[in-house]
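In practice, a research group might receive sequence data for several interacting partners and want a quick structural hypothesis before committing to experiments. The following worked case mirrors that situation: the sequences arrive first, and a predicted assembly follows.
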Amino acid sequence: MHALIQAIILGVLTGGVYALMASGQTLIFGVMKVVNLAQGALVVLGAYLTYTLFTQLGIDPFLSVLITTPLMFLVGVAVQWAFLRPLHGDDIAQLSLLVTFAVALGIEGVLSFAYSTTLTNVQPSYANSSWEILGYQVSLVRFVAFLLSLVMLGLLYLILQRTKFGRSVRATVQNPMSAQLLGVNSQRVSAIGFGIGTATAAAAGSVFGMLNSFNPGSHYDLISRLLTIVVLGGLGSIGGSVVAALVMGVASSVVSALASPIWSDFTFFIVLLLVLLLRPRGLFGARLRGAL
Amino acid sequence: MIRGFSRIGLIRTGIFFAALIIIPLVGAPGFLLNTLIFTVMYAALASSWNLVGGYAGYPSLGHVAFFGIGAYAVGIVFAKDVYGGYLPFFVLPIIGIAVGLLAVPIGWVSMRTRADVFAIVTITLLFIAQTLAFNLKGLTGGAQGSSVAPPPFAVDTFDWPFYFAMVVLLAVAMAISLYFRRSKIGLSLATVRADEDKAHGVGVRVTAVKLTAFGVSAGLVAMVGGVWAYYVGFIYPQFAFDPLITIGMVLMAFLGGRGTLWGPVLGAFILVPAQEFFAQALGASQLYLVAYAAVFLVIILFLPRGILPSITERLRRRRDTLDVAAASAGPDTAPPAEPREVKVRR
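A structural hypothesis for the assembly, expressed as tokens:
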């Protein structure tokens, strides 16, 4: 019982970070109908940026979010502008999928050239400290990471609900055509939407670098988990992706604690399979489509 | 063009395969034959991928899963002894059929979704297969890999059996591709690609044709994987289930032209030699990944339909303009019509 509760705590904390990555990805899908296969690579890029800021300039990994997030926002806007905006034709969904995969490969290549392919880790002085609450271990880094993710998700929520830009995003998600007729500049919304999605990847990446060892090839692992989460949550639904991320975080952590860590990755795939069999549109797929 | 074989097509195919067969016989150097094996291998892979990704419009990003399964099938069965050396080649059809049948339920689950989610599902399929290969240590040897017993072929002509096996598989893949184009299956797949709901509505057996294409495609890829495993001798999960192999297939089919007979082959014959060249010229494997990504982006941005469709389109336009010019070459010559207008009129 103790092990189970401990695993659930760990799962919720990890799930929060995945929720951040997945919300960005599902936002990008909602706005542009593009499945961003580069999201994992962007997270890894964010992790490496944090790593460099930490080892070279001694900036605290949590504070470095203030630098990496705006930087990666610009990267995202640039990627959208250079590679996704020029696409047109009937099979734009397929083409954009492949373009984002190519971007992922490119990022992996550049990173392995710059940092080599050995596993690294961001290790601040407090990396191993943890609190004991009612007999359960809560790692400091994981807890702060969870809080950070909550803050970022809250910010995202505020942007989408309270700003003019957020309203045009939601309008675009609901019906791109009508949104354009009402004067929403869809190119701009797409670019900024992609940028925000990338910025969430950056924020999650800073944390990811502290919680896991990573190398440039880590994005394959990440993207398969993220895709499972967004499909489970229902593509395009941010709320759904948050719920799905928590579910998956807990599920894989419980499997890892009670069965074997080897099979914890497998939980993701089993869940994906079940979702596709029982409810292909995901938990919150169609019903909440426009609600975000 | 739809029915029957055109003479030019037959001659072209004949010359192509005759050249492939003659090259080793006239004593091509080892490195050339080695490059050629991988070129033909990718041509066969891309042609098989094209059955699903091109004709049906379902972009599978997980086909390497079947490649790896085929590789491990050969690796596991022939780990100790290859029984004279040629038996693995004769077992391939059995592996192909078995994997093809295995692929049907997988396709049934994953093809419940449409293009973008399908790509996601197939990508996870690749990771499922890779995770299994890493974790089922008793069967696959895990990260230590497994090996195929070395074949007792003469040193001089060691590569020949593998090469000819690949050529045969390419021929089979192209024959099936041609058959798809000329039969009701191809037409049904074309309707699926254009508008699946409408196709379903007018009575096309959507699920049946999709699954046929998926199964056949997976079986072919598995056979190619089997030959590959036998050729390289050592199988590791990260190489047998390498995402780059999947991307290779997709990229080559895209470059040459999806949904065409020769496009995937053309793509392979351009990209694989280019890859070998880059790998030798640039040395560092990381740069090679960047170059790969760059080529990929350039193709999609500038040649989204592929080389062959772009060329045929251009040729047709030119012929149309010539026709119009000839028709309107009356006494008071009207300005030649724009190609665009011609296209609308047809």
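Before designing any experiment, note the following. The CA atoms of residues 15 and 246 of chain A lie 4 Å apart. Chain A touches chain B through 44 residues (CB under 8 Å).
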